[in-house]
Task: structure prediction
Amino acid sequence: MVKDITKFDSILEIADYFKDQETCKKHLEQLRWGNNIVCPHCSHENAYRTTVGYKCSSNKCYKKFSVVTKTIFEGTKIPLRKWFMAIFTFINNSAGISSVTLSKELKITQHSAWFLLHRLREIMRSATPKKLFGTVQADETMFGGKESNKPKSKRAKKAKGSSLIGTTKTYIIGAVQQDGNIITTLSDSNAEDVLIPFLKDNVEEGATIVTDAHRGYQNLPNHNYTHITNKHGKHKFVRVVDDVKYHTQAIEGFWSIFKGAVKGTHRYISLKHLSKYTAEHTCRYNLRKKKPADKFIGLLGMVSNTTVKYEKMIAGKYRSQD
Result:
């Protein structure tokens, strides 16, 4: 009798069900193509099976491929069984998991575990969330160590105004829908010319946006938003308007979870890879109401059409979204 994977709620059930490479491939094939195999090279819908995989039947292609072609699994030497266990553990741990811990649990090198986790973070970063609506909380937090902890010769110069250019810090800007999803981004500044465009891109017009008293949000009504301000500096954290309570506890709770994970799990995050880690925790937060198996299936369903090369992943600036 075939087990219903949607009811799995532990790593033991994942390990027992996906007992070999063939079982993992069959599940991935069904999840990726269903009953209609599509060539990942040219999107042609007819292919025939070979001794090692598939071959496109289009006379303009004729390329060979397998179920892992053009996925984050392409080129990996780690068995799919271990990948599946890693995905289940990764997405269901609210604080994330370190590469050191994962390497011990899967019996792989720490370097391989680090690359595996970054591949998963990369597909999370490529997710395109829908616009938020209704009541939305917006806020920003500063990320980066204290300059006072460094030797004077290595301390960055203090930036002017709201800009962090020239420092080792950055802003994480976020907006969360009440009882819904969150969207985050990184920026050198938390000025109005950054905050307003971010909200216009990610929040539907007509929404009610709740913020603290930061001046960068003060012109929101000019952009067809209702703006509710809580003056935290005066210890006013909840504001009642027409018998409705407005606060920013959800977005501040997310900052707490993220920074707690940085200190407790990751220990250190470089600015170069910060966008991947924020994407990880953003995606996990958005799946928080789903069952463990649904989170696993949801993340596994995102692996297609995303290949991550090691050289590309370690290259470039930290704010690159490529």
Remarks:
- The chain has two domains: 10-125, 135-254.
